[in-house]
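name: query_chain
kind: protein
chains: 1
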Amino acid sequence: MGRIEFGILGPVAAWTGAREPLDLKGPRHRALLARLLIARGRVVPVDVLVGDLWAEPASGALASVRTFVAALRRALEPDRRPRSPARLLVTDGPGYALRAEADAVDAWRFEDALAAAAAAAPRRALDLLEPALRSWRGPALAGLEDEWWAAGERARLEELRLGGVERRAEALLALDRPAEVVADLEAHAAQHPWREEAWRLLALALLRGGRQAEALEVARRASDTLRDRLGLDPGPGLRRLEADLLRRTGPADQSTEVDRVWAEASDAYDRIVTGGSRSRLESTVGLLRSAAVTGAAGLEAGRGQRLKAIEAAERLGDPVLTARVIGGFDVPANWTRSDDPALSARVVAAAERALAGLGDGAGEAVRARLLATVAVESRGTGERRAREAALEAERLARGLGDAALLAFALNGRFMQSFGRTGLAGERDAIGVELVALSRRHDLPNHEILGRLVRVQALSALADFAAADAEAEAADRLAEEHERPLVGVFTGWYRAMRFAARGGPVAESEGRYRDAAAALAAAGMPGVESGLLPLALLCLRVWRGEPVGFDDRTDWGPYGPWVRPMILLGRGRRNEAGEALRRVPAPPHGLVAEALWCLTARAAADLGDAEAAARTRAALEPAAAELAAGTGMLTAGPVADYLSDPRTRPLYR
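structure:
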């Protein structure tokens, strides 16, 4: 008969490879099959089966179980010769086991699809989830509602299904298809009113579909439902969304007044400042700078228009104007990989041309802004010129006493503070100064930057009490000044903190995935690319869990450093050894410690003395830190990788 497939996502069933249903006889036969499927290939002793199938077993219960087994064997393997060993439903020691193939059970395939979708890009996630959700034929283990032993598995599978529905909605929202999820989410939230994520996604879908008033009504109804019907307080995600909606859908007269003032001011500007004026270029940069901190759309607009403004300034042939246009885009940055490396390289080249073109009479402030731009935009490159530019910009800014310029220069120094591992203390000092400076001179954007820098550094220093305070302060500032992207970083921080404090792996991974859903729509590809699978891999390696990623996982820029561990997880040691020998030093940035830790574990597992010595030399300066300097993921204490018993012979 060939391949046999099994189904428990609905009534218990079995089919041939051609999807022809098998006759499984009566309810007890189906219950026995379900009980063995739930065991996932493990042996279930006969006395356990008797106790599970009958509340009060009769004297002939044992013989009945054997009869049911024989009947199921005939159904599953009709061509098996008499007295030849069974291939699927086998006798093993004190009981029976069902040895189904890994992809032969619909529930197992569903779980695999969910796991792959959790670490996949939105388009791939959707391709995985939609057929997986369609594989449900009804409630899991339908017909066995009265069986106590099926209750836990039924509840677990239903929870996974609900999560899959929500993950599909996240993917569609990330693909800018909100209209396709509203109806499904309305039904989902109505049927499962305790699922806060269902309400949040529904409100978000309505908002992105241009239905702001309805989105606010859903958020309010969710809060009322959770409080009044379930006695629960809404979580931070729902509260933040409701607050954001309140701001967006404020009183009509207030909104009208704001729009009127904007229209009158922009009209006056157009009348007064003539077309082609140099002032327009500088004003454009100011608008782009303001837009870049307002959310994903503003960030993308800032990136898209910034280079055009620089090129327009260069065509005018005024080096000082060009310098002001380049240096005026002092948008705070706390991630050490650019969202658009090619754009960053072009901005750096333009800044260097401007520096070369400035005469001796050019002011130090103009030079300092160009140097700070070089330092910030050269993030992660490890270039000596970038480090020198950061130090010179800071020196000039301190001498001028310009607080805003110093804040920009400190951002550049932060970006160039990754010459080796173990420098979290130095970065925390930068964050402390940024916060103090910004508070004195009312620079909220750079105060937020300082607090996020401290969250990252304090995470590496394992001072979570202080990091919590900084994250909360950053969230308050973000709410006050309408900076929605801050919540992406603080949300990831709280997921990482839960994992770093020993939270269960499954729940830690769930929190990482929730954080990744918010990041997907944030317009920050330099942060998002590969971050979720890297976070999951670091967690699993640290906790000694199976790696379990497939070839479709998008590792973004982290592929060379994760490949040895992925290959080891698949038992391909020779290929893993070759990959390890090709691994370069990680980029100079926030993830360096985590990537070195993955390399160290691969070197230990493979017994590669040369690679182990190299990783030890790189990690020793960070021996007292957590590999958590991103503030968003952790590979655990660096000391764990330095003191791994498997590596000790390599370091003698």
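note: Residues 376 and 412 are 5 Å apart (CA to CA).
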